[in-house]
Structure formats: C-alpha cells, structure tokens
Specification:
The complex is a heterodimer.
Chain A (H helix, E strand, L loop, with lengths): L2 E2 H15 L5 E3 L15 H4 L4 E3 L4 H13 L5 E3 L10 H15 L6 E6 L14 H5 L5 E3 L4 H13 L4 E6 H6 L1 E2 L13 E4 L4 E5 L3 H13 L5 E5 L2 E3 L3 H11 L2 E4 L8 H12 L9 E3 L10 H7 L3 H13 L1
Parallel strand pairs in A: 2-3, 2-4, 4-5, 5-7, 6-7, 10-11, 10-13, 13-14
Antiparallel strand pairs in A: 1-8, 6-12, 9-11
Helix pairs in contact in A: 1-6, 3-4, 8-12, 9-10
Chain B lengths: L1 H42 L14 H10 L5 E3 L5 H7 L3 H9 L31 H15 L7 E6 L6 H13 L3 E7 L2 E2 L2 E2 L10 H7 L2 E6 L3 H16 L5 E6 L17 H5 L6 H11 L5 H23 L33
Parallel strand pairs in B: 1-2, 2-3, 3-7, 6-7
Antiparallel strand pairs in B: 4-5
Classes of the chains: A alpha/beta, B alpha/beta.
Chain lengths: 321, 350
C-alpha cells in the first residue's frame, strides 16, 4: 500500500475534521465534487455540513474564514489554484495577518494554495506565491516537499493559532508516493538535511527539493558530495540549519521555482551573507524561474523553471569557483 | 372595554417608542460631543494621526446600534460613533484609541476609528472598504454551526464602498448562505471628495440589493424616527430568518472626510437639500415638538455628557502610551514561530 502527496493532504483534512469540531473547509467545488484536484474527495459525505462550496469569491472566502476564526473556529480555505489567491490577497495580508497584532484575537486559519508548475498549465495556473506572503508579518508559510510533511505540516497548520499559507505543490500531487502516513514529525520551523554532503550545500523547498536531489545524485558519480537542505517552511526560515550546512561545505546554491526578485533564494543568501560570510569559500549562487510569466508550451516551460539538469550545471560552476 | 384596551396598548407602544427615541437621542448627543472633543484635541495637536467624525450620520448609526442586542455582531465603519456607543462600546475605548493609551483595546498599535473588541462582537475595521462584510458573514456561519439562533450581524458601509469587489462578493455570499446579515449603506453623497455621479450609475443604490436577491429598505437618514423603525424592521427580519437585508439611507456628511479636510467640494445644493439637514437638530426639534422632552431635560443631557467626556479625556491623558522598549514586536500568537531580525544595534534602539 502506498499513499500519494495529494492523498496525504486529503487524509490530513479528514483527521483534522474528525479530531476537532471547530474545523471546516471552505472553497470552490470542494463539496460533492471533491475539489478540482480531489483533495477533499468524499469529505463532504463523511463530514456533512462541514465542507462548504463557495462562490467564486476568494476575497469573501478568506473574509469569512477570518470571521469564523474570531468566533473560535479553525477553518481551512482551499484556493483552487495558488494563482487565484490574489483576489483574496487583501483579506490575507491586511485582515488575517494583522488581526492578532491589532486586537489580541488570534486568527487560526489555514489557506491551502495548490502551487507551482505542471506542464501545460500556463501563466495563471502555475504560480508559486510563497515569497509574497512571507513578506508580510503575521503569516506563517509552509512549503512541504514530501508526503510525510504534506500530512503532518497540514495538521500542524490547522493547530497553529496564526494564519498559515500552506503551499502544496501540484506537481507532487500524483508523482510523490510514500509507504504510509507518518506517525511522528519534525516541528514546523526546522529545516531537514535531505541528503548529507561535504562539498556544496543546495537549499531547496517544495518540488525543487526533488530536482536538487536528482542533481546531487548525478553529481555524486563524480565523487562530489552535495548536501541538500529542505527548508520545509520558508517562514519561519531555519537559518541555523542552513548556516550549519554552509559551515560544513563552504558553498551555497539556493534553488526556487518562484521568480528571483525579492524571493526565498534572495532571503537565504542574505542571511548566509549576514550571519555566515566567513564560512563561504565562493560567492553564494541562486537559481530561479526566468523573470517572465510562466509559459504554456512544454518546451518553454521545461526551461523556464530550474530542473535537475540546470541545477547540475549551476552546481558544477559553483564547485569550480 | 375593547377600545380601552387597544388604546392602552397603543399608549404603551408610544411610551416605549418615546423611551427608545430619547435613548437614541442621548447616544447621538454623546457621539456628537465626543466627536467635537476629539476634533478639538486634534486641532490642539494632542492627537496623532487622523480624526474622523460621524457628524450628520448619527441618526442612522445609532439606530443600527440600538436594533442590535447582546450576542449580536456589529462591524461599524468610520462614522459610526453613535452606533458603537449604542451597541455598548465604552467612551473610554474611543478616547484611549484616539490618544494612543496602552490601556486601550488597541494598545497604541492601531488608532482612531480602527478599534473594536472582536470577541465581544464589535469588530475592528480595516481601512479597505467592503472587507469587513464577509468577516461578519463568517462569524454568522459559525453561529449557525453552533446552532445559536436569533443572532444578527450588522455591517456598515458608505455608498463609495458599494463600488468595491469585496462588497459584491460579501453580499452575494450572504445571500447564497442566507445569513442574518444587515448591511447598512449610508449614502452621504461623497466618498472623500467623489460625488455620487462619479461613484455609481444605477438609478438607485437600493437596486443593487435586488441583483443579489437581498431584501432592501430605504430610509431618510436624517430622520431618527424613520431610522429607528427601518433598522428595527430590517434587523427583526434578519433575526427571524428572512435572510440578508440591505438598508440604504440618504444623508449628508456634515464635515470633512477627516478633520484635515475642509470639505469645500460639498455643494450648496447638497447642504440645502432635505438630506442636508442635521439629524441631531431634527431629532431635538422632534422631541420638543412632541413634548417628549423639554429644554431643561436636553440641557441636563448636554451637561451630563460634557462631564462624562471631559472626565474620560482627563483620565486617559494621564495614562501611559505604549513603550517601544517593552513592546514585544511579535505579530504572531505562536511566539515560538516568530522570526527575529536582529541588527547590530538592536540592543540599543527600540
């Protein structure tokens, strides 16, 4: 028996609904239809009245979740695609993220963002929004890269007393499988050494973790040992684990599927430069999507975002510096 | 015999309405005096940031506050001082928030009309118009989950706010869920300086409600008696399961957008129109004409209110403001997940 990343998300929601009567799910097509990706399949039947179909109103969906949180509930909002969180952006950053600071009333909402690129999805169904949300105080941003983390971090997101932006990667939905659901988990805010090494650190998160691991495997045939760090959550960002890794390797390559400007890779490099400058044997490097909208055609898309192949090239260049 | 009973019932209703009217008038007066005090402190440089008055909108606002009861939800907007007081917000909450007292509900973190006590049903508005309506919807949804019946949520907005996407989404959402929402639209003719003619093109704002399948009520916002009746009806209909209600009131903002604004753009024609009347003056005249109060009672109200406001200001002026060195600078309820961005001089500066 195996379980996919998508099934883990469904199972986490089923557990959250079963364990806590304050949890409900709100989003488009999530009831009888089970969601655009089937992340809520059968949940409306198993939990009658607690999986609500919403009109196409992302602003009002998030607003209602905030009102529910004020009343002590712990709603999960499913955005159909991360890209469509932008009409709800105002409620997320100005209302959800400021509520506790302003009024001392916590805002325990989880907003699920089916994120990242899949072939053929084009400019409006492929975006990675994590950096934008991480910019705002008052939000927690999770970017699980494994089936185990998708499950345990979503449960933790629902339990946390603050708004959580849960970036689940659509490419991993069906591609990633685990033998079983986890019984224990690392705490949120801790990065994980996904592959130990001594020659170069690659920091990645979400789907890019798997491209980085594939690149590390390829380079291993040269006898070069790459350490891969999975950030898991980008806010909070575990600077200590990253700096400790750079202390071992002296070289840093950050990989993100999102655009480069002001993004997670820039933030990681800024922190390492500030806190671990003397640990670096070469200038820190980063690899991101190209600075254009995300293309539809597979030939363009495969080059637009970082892949194992482009990571190998970037890593080899960095090793020569 | 039958006739006597009927006329006695009628007399009771009149008497209880007189009580309600007097109560409303007193809150309107309190709101007006409090507003004027805040404006005066602002002009004296004692208030940091803006001051926003409800002048001309008190009759409508107080009617919302009075139609609600404990356990209901109220999301006031910028000019709802009277409604806030009627709903139960202490005068001190307003003064403390305006003067930045750390003892106030917003602790100096937010100011002026951005205040509330969400857990007590009084929501703290953000500046983005229309954004509070769906928050009220969500709270009402939870009341439904909890099987708490007979609860109403009221949200206030201006005619300018009806142009936002948030307004549209939230009103539609309330209609789809058939929530007991009362959405009160104060058409005060100007959104900051923008007149109705540049704000909407529908014949009547009330027509917007029809498009959402929402029941609508229209009222002269300068007439306290009509406002009390209309809001009482709208809230009762929502409470009894009639679904969302929208109230559209015609009135005029008798001040600038804030005290920084001289409102030179308000036309003489607007000021001289029926909705340009001062609702407080109209209510006072009404009280005297019907002999529900005499000049002496109104003078007594004024004296009591002036004292209450003076005492509140005097108290708050002695209270401390927030201390940047004691501020925890943490935006998360889960403090252990908060990130620290220390700079080399963090230890020395706030």
């Amino acid at each position: 028996m195996s379980i996919t990343y998508l099934e883990a998300i469904r199972e986490a929601q089923a557990k959250a609904l079963a364990d806590d009567s304050r949890v409900f799910i709100y989003g488009q097509d999530i009831g009888a239809f089970g969601g655009a990706f089937k992340a809520t399949k059968n949940l409306a039947v198993e939990f009658p009245g607690r999986v609500l179909d919403a009109p196409i109103s992302e602003d009002a969906m998030v607003g209602a979740a905030i009102g529910a949180a004020i009343e002590g509930y712990r709603p999960i909002v499913e955005m159909q695609f991360a890209d469509f969180s932008t009409p709800g952006f105002n409620q997320i950053i100005n209302q959800a993220a400021t509520l506790y600071w302003r009024t001392n009333v916590p805002c325990p909402i989880t907003i699920r963002l089916p994120s990242g690129g899949t072939s053929g999805s084009g400019p409006f169904h492929s975006q990675s929004m994590e950096a934008i949300y991480a910019h705002y105080p008052g939000l927690i941003v999770m970017t699980p890269a494994t089936v185990e983390d998708a499950y345990s971090m979503l449960l933790e997101a629902v339990a946390i007393d603050d708004p959580v932006i849960f970036c689940e990667h659509k490419y991993l939905y069906y591609h990633l499988k685990a033998a079983a659901l986890p019984t224990e988990a690392m705490p949120v805010g801790k990065a994980r050494i996904a592959r130990p090494g001594r020659d170069l650190t690659i920091v990645a998160y979400s789907a890019m973790l798997h491209e980085a691991l594939a690149a590390a495997e390829e380079i291993a045939s040269d006898g070069t040992e790459i350490e891969v760090v999975d950030l898991r959550s980008i806010k909070p960002l575990d600077t200590d684990t990253v700096v400790a890794s750079v202390a071992r390797t002296g070289r840093l390559l950050c990989v993100g599927e999102a655009w480069p400007w002001g993004g997670v890779t820039a933030e990681v490099i800024a922190r390492v430069a500030t806190e671990g400058f003397d640990l670096l044997d070469a200038p820190p490097q980063r690899l991101n999507a190209k600075d254009t909208p995300i293309p539809y055609h597979p030939d363009l898309w495969s080059v637009h975002r970082p892949t194992a192949r482009s990571i190998v090239t970037a890593a080899r260049n960095l090793l020569r510096m | 015999m039958l006739q006597t009973l009927e006329s006695r019932e009628k007399a009771d209703i009149v008497s209880s309405f007189r009580e309600q009217y007097l109560k409303a008038f007193r809150y309107m007066l309190l709101s007006r005096v409090l507003d004027e005090k805040m404006a005066s402190l602002y002009r004296g440089g004692k208030i940091h940031g803006g001051v926003f008055l409800g002048r001309g909108q008190e009759a409508l606002s107080v009617s919302v506050g009075l139609a609600l009861r404990k356990g209901d939800i109220f999301s006031p907007l910028i000019r709802d001082g009277a409604g806030r007081l009627a709903f139960g917000e202490p005068v001190l909450d307003a003064v403390r928030t305006y003067l930045g007292s750390v003892i106030g509900p917003m602790r100096g973190r937010d100011g002026n009309i951005h205040r509330g006590r969400p857990r007590e049903g009084l929501f703290a508005m953000i500046s983005h118009l229309g954004a509070m309506i769906s928050v009220v919807n969500g709270a009402l949804l939870v009341r439904r989950f909890k099987k708490i019946e007979g609860v109403v949520g009221a949200a206030c907005i201006g005619e300018g706010g009806t142009s936002t996407g948030s307004f549209h989404e939230a009103l539609n959402q309330a209609a789809v869920e058939r929530l007991p929402l009362v959405l009160v639209v104060a058409n005060n003719q100007y959104a900051y300086s923008t007149p109705n003619s540049r704000q909407f093109a529908c014949r009547d704002l009330a027509d917007k409600a029809i498009g959402y399948g929402v029941n609508v009520h229209k009222v002269d916002g300068t007439d306290l008696e009509k406002c009390l009746h209309t809001l009482s009806d709208a809230v009762a209909q929502a409470r009894e399961g009639g679904g969302p209600q929208m109230v559209v009131a015609q009135l005029l903002r008798l001040c600038g957008h804030g005290e920084h604004d001289d409102a030179h753009y308000i036309t003489t024609q607007s000021k001289q129109s029926l909705f340009g009347r001062d609702c407080l003056k109209v209510a006072e005249d009404h009280l005297l004409r019907r002999a529900w109060a005499d000049v002496a009672i109104i003078r007594k109200y004024r004296e009591e209110i002036a004292l209450e406001v003076e005492q509140a200001v005097a108290l708050v002026q002695r209270e401390p403001g927030p201390d940047p060195y004691k501020e925890n600078w943490c935006a998360l309820a889960s403090r252990h997940l908060s990130e620290r961005f220390e700079t080399p001089d963090s230890a020395d500066s706030p």
